[in-house]
Amino acid sequence: MVMRISQWILVLALLTQVCASVSNDATEDAEKLGNLDEESITKEYTLEELVADSNYTETEAWLANSTTDLRTTAAPINALSNNQFPNATARNGRILGGTPITTDAGFSQYIYHVAVRGTSSAGTHRTFCGGSLLSNTWALTAAQCVALVTTVTVFPGTYSNPTAGAGTTATPTIHPSFRWNFMIHDVALLKMSSPLTLGTLIGTIRLSSVKPTAALDNVAFKTLGFGPNDDTTAALGATSALNWVELTNVKKATCNSETIDVYVTYPANTGCLGTSSGTKGTCYADPGGAVIYTSSTDGTAKLIGINSQYIGCPSQYPSSFTWIYPYISWITATTKKYFT
């Protein structure tokens, strides 16, 4: 009996020490957080942390546990619809609240923009995205646009009915660290099967070497894409027109606070484009399209990002884009060319 009482006393003593330690740690953490600004405590999740975190959707959980490498397979994503997986690229598309381009003169400053169509071997998975020409043989788009397809076709030099012509086939090179699950490193290069002829309606854009900093918070960026006039149109057709829109580069901490209620945190190396609910923003088929920044120092429009994710369409939530700056070395190493 004496032995049992002694054992219980020992257990209680240990528990008291543990509780005291937890309390002290919590107090110290609170004091540390009190000395940090909003930007410092914003979480930038790694892939491993996202998989371990319980705050993500069931679809993302299924994808995280999938044994299929979605960068290379041509199989559809388990027949998931866009309602189940709103970030998946659909066949229809639009820039919300944009300005349509209707003349050659209006298109002259966007002649680097191309439509990118991907199709799987069985035809069960199709994508329609945007892209940007870096040269007559290379284009840049989002990895999600070409990750599940076997045939990629690029359509340059048009601002209406983009798939009317035959297009040019291209070979994609997806960033080696891309993971569909959370759209991490959502970047891909496309090499044309034959060089394009540059001219009045087909041109190139330079990459911006501007590093993402707080100085770019709340700065206006442009983006563009094809799409019908309303969400009832199921596919791109003869009425499809290229639209451009100006959006605000939202501070990442503000962006995260706006998306947290739907359990979304855009990954590192991404920025956010502010939207107006139901009236202005990006939507289906806009991933891969250019995010353009015109620096006041040289007045030249350059590619500073690539459209990546959106949360529903239309939506009040900001969409994400992949910053170009962290990938310039990879682009140079892959293409053996400089585009800045």
From TrEMBL:
PROSITE patterns membership: TRYPSIN_DOM
Residues in the signal sequence: 1-20
Pfam family, one: Trypsin
InterPro entries in the cross-refs: Peptidase_S1_PA (IPR009003), Peptidase_S1_PA_chymotrypsin (IPR043504), Peptidase_S1A (IPR001314), Ser/Thr_Proteases_Immune/Dev (IPR051487), Trypsin_dom (IPR001254)
Any one GO MF annotation of this record: serine-type endopeptidase activity
The keyword Transmembrane is assigned to this record: no
Domain Peptidase S1: 95-336
Coiled-coil annotated spans: none
BP GO annotations: proteolysis
Keywords carried by this UniProt record: Disulfide bond, Signal
Domain of life: Eukaryota
Record family assignment: Belongs to the peptidase S1 family. CLIP subfamily.
Protein's recorded name: Peptidase S1 domain-containing protein
Organism: Cloeon dipterum
Phylogenetic classification of the source organism: Eukaryota, Metazoa, Ecdysozoa, Arthropoda, Hexapoda
